[in-house]
Amino acid sequence: MAYNNNNNDVRYLSPVTAEVKKKKYCRFKKTGIKYIDYKDAEFLKRFLNEQGKILPRRLTGTSLKFQRRVSQAVKRARHLALLPYVADLMK
To answer: What are phi and psi of 54, to 5 degrees?
Structure first.
């Protein structure tokens, strides 16, 4: 059996794509935010998932210093009933 393969190219069904990961950054350091207000529930909702859990640093890109401040602010807002402890489809 003779195969007629003039060029030795490897062909794929779909094009091969290299995954390019976006560089994570701390939005607080970038914008110069010093204080995280626990009374601003709409801002704090960005750091919660649909169930109301606090998102980890590896997903948000927040630095350790500000992650601690965010979690403290979320806990204070929960205590004052500005944010729920548990929710179904919060967003």
So the answer is: -75, 130
Residue 47: CB atoms within 10 A of its CB come to 20
Whether the full predicted model's pTM is greater than 0.70, yes or no, is yes
Best CA proximity match to 46, nearest among 23, 73, 21, 64: 73
What is the average pLDDT score of the chain?
Answer: 86
CA distances from 34 to 4, 6, 26, 48, 70 (A): 68, 64, 12, 20, 11
| Cβ 56 vs Cβ 74: under 8 Å | no
Question: Between 62 and 20, where is the model more confident?
Answer: 62
